[in-house]
Design a protein that fits this description.
binds adenosine monophosphate, seven-stranded parallel sheet, six-stranded parallel sheet, disordered C terminus, 411 residues, 13 strands, alpha/beta
Length: 411
C-alpha cells in the first residue's frame, strides 16, 4: 500500500515524500482510515512501529481544512498526552515535520523546564498541543490552557502513564475536554488497568493491534549470560571489550545502577552517557543528543527514561539487569533489529533473576539461547529449566512447543 491510498492531502504527502517514507507501516495502514472516519481507537503498538505518525497524520488531515480559520485566536484542537518529556519533544518533532507544508501550529509543554516560555507559547496559540499530564494541569490551573475546543485527545504510551501514577491526572484532563471529542489510546501493552481506563473514556472504540514483539524476536538475536551479581560489571566490561560493537543501549533497573555503571564505563575509557529521571531535562537531552550524534556509543538508561525514545540504528541492547515485568524485556529488545536490520540483545542474569527469565520465556514463547563461554559463569547446575519436558534443546534456543501454538495477543 502507498500513502496516497490513505487519502491524505498533498501537503502531508509532500512532507512524507521528503522524509522518504514510501509506504505506511502496519499500524498506520490500520489506524489512519479509522481515525479519519472519526472513530475512537485503541491501539496496541510500541515505539518503533510508526505509531506516532499513525495518529499524527490523520489528525493533521482532519485539522487541515480548518487551518485558515485558525489565524486569529488559535484554539487547541488536538491534545496529545504522554508520560515523559523526551517523548513529548519527539512527538512534537514528528508533528512539525509532517505539517511543514501546512499552516497548522504545534506546541509542547512538559515539566522539569521553565513554565514561562510555555505560557507565552499558549498565549500565542497552537492547534496541536503535546503535553505531559502534570504540567498541563498546572498550566490549566493558571488559566493558560483552554481545552473546550478539543476535537481529538490522544493518550500515548498509556500503560507507562498509568505505571507512573498519572491515572487521576489523565482522567481529570479527559473531563476538561469536550464530551464529543474523539479519543485515541495508544499503548505498548494492554494490562487490565489500561483496558479499564479505555472502557471508561472511549466510545465504541475500534481496535488496532500490531505484533512488534514477534517481528522483534525474528530480527533480534538474543543471548543470555548467567553470572553472579557481583561479577556483572566485569562481565559487561569483558563483553564491551571483546564482543559488543556499535551503538549500545544498556538497561538498568535503578537510577543508582545507571550512575554506577556509567562511572565504571567512563573509568575504563568507554564513551558512555546516561538517562534517568533524576537528571535535569537539559542533561537528559544532552546525553540523548551525544548518543544520536555518535559522540558516545553507549547509552545507559532506566526503562522509564528510555521508554518512547526513538533511537535509530541501535546495534545492541544489553540488559544489565533483567526486568521483573516480561513485557518490558520485549520493549527493550524491540529497540534493536528495526527496519529490516538485525540486532543483538544480550542479557546478564544473576541467580535471583532466574525467575524473570522463566516469565520472559513464557511470554515470548521461546527459550533464550545461553552463552556459557565466558570468564564469570554461574554454577551451571543452577540454570532454570522452564519447559522441563523439552530437555536440553532449549538452551540452544530452539523454538519450544509453546511457540508453535502462538497465542493471539494484543501487541
Ligand atoms: P514511532 O514508532 O512513531 O516512534 O516511529 C519510529 C520511527 O519510524 C520514527 O523514526 C519515524 O520517523 C519512522 N517512521 C514512521 N512511519 C514511517 C514510515 N511509514 N516509513 C518509514 N519510517 C517511518
Amino acid at each position: 500500500m502507498h500513502f496516497k491510498e490513505l487519502q491524505l492531502n498533498k501537503p502531508i504527502l509532500r512532507a512524507l515524500a521528503e522524509k522518504k517514507y514510501d509506504n505506511p507501516t502496519l499500524v498506520q495502514e490500520r489506524a489512519i482510515p479509522l481515525i479519519l472516519a472519526k472513530h475512537d481507537v485503541i491501539a496496541s503498538a510500541q515505539t518503533g512501529t510508526g505509531k506516532t505518525a499513525a495518529y499524527a497524520l490523520p489528525i493533521l488531515q482532519l485539522l487541515f481544512d480548518k487551518q485558515d480559520a485558525a489565524k486569529k485566536g488559535r484554539k487547541i484542537k488536538s491534545l496529545i498526552i504522554c508520560p515523559t518529556r523526551e517523548l513529548a519533544i519527539q512527538i512534537e518533532e514528528n508533528f512539525k515535520s509532517y505539517s511543514t507544508h501546512t499552516k497548522l501550529k504545534t506546541g509542547v509543554v512538559f515539566g522539569g523546564a521553565s513554565i514561562e516560555p510555555q505560557k507565552q507559547l499558549l498565549k500565542k496559540g497552537v492547534d496541536i498541543l503535546i503535553a505531559t499530564p502534570g504540567r498541563l494541569l498546572d498550566l490549566h490551573k493558571q488559566d493558560f490552557v483552554n481545552l473546550s475546543q478539543i476535537e481529538t485527545l490522544v493518550l500515548d504510551e498509556a500503560d507507562l502513564m498509568l505505571d507512573m501514577g498519572f491515572i487521576d491526572d489523565v482522567k481529570k484532563i479527559e473531563r476538561l475536554c469536550t464530551k464529543e471529542k474523539q479519543v485515541l489510546l495508544f499503548s505498548a501493552t494492554m494490562p487490565h488497568k489500561v483496558t479499564e481506563l479505555a472502557k471508561s473514556i472511549l466510545k465504541d472504540p475500534k481496535k488496532v493491534a500490531v505484533a512488534p514483539n514477534s517481528s522483534a524476536s525474528d530480527t533480534v538475536h538474543q543471548v543470555l549470560y548467567y553470572t553472579p551479581k557481583p561479577n556483572k560489571i566485569e562481565l559487561c566490561l569483558h563483553l564491551l571489550r571483546r564482543k559488543i560493537e556499535g551503538n549500545i543501549l544498556i538497561f538498568r533497573r535503578t537510577k543508582y545502577g545507571v550512575e554506577k555503571l556509567e562511572s565504571s564505563l567512563l573509568k575504563n575509557n568507554f564513551k558512555a552517557s546516561s538517562l534517568h529521571g533524576d537528571k535535569s531535562q537539559s542533561d537528559r537531552q544532552t546525553a540523548l543528543n551525544q548518543f544520536k550524534k555518535g559522540e558516545t556509543n553507549i547509552l545507559i538508561a532506566t526503562d522509564v527514561a528510555a521508554r518512547g525514545i526513538d533511537i535509530n540504528d541501535l546495534d545492541v541492547v544489553l540488559n544489565f539487569d533483567l526486568p521483573n515485568i516480561p513485557e518490558t524485556y520485549v520493549h527493550r529488545i524491540g529497540r534493536t533489529g528495526r527496519a529490516g536490520k538485525t540486532g543483538i540483545a544480550y542479557s546478564l542474569c544473576a541467580a535471583d533473576e532466574k525467575k524473570y527469565v522463566a516469565s520472559i520465556q513464557r511470554l515470548i514463547l521461546q527459550d533464550i539461547p545461553v552463552e556459557d563461554e565466558h570468564p564469570y559463569p554461574l554454577d551451571p547446575s543452577a540454570k532454570p529449566q522452564v519447559h522441563k519436558k523439552q530437555g536440553s534443546k532449549h538452551r540452544k534456543g530452539r523454538k519450544s512447543e509453546a511457540s508453535k501454538k502462538k497465542k493471539k495477543r494484543w501487541y
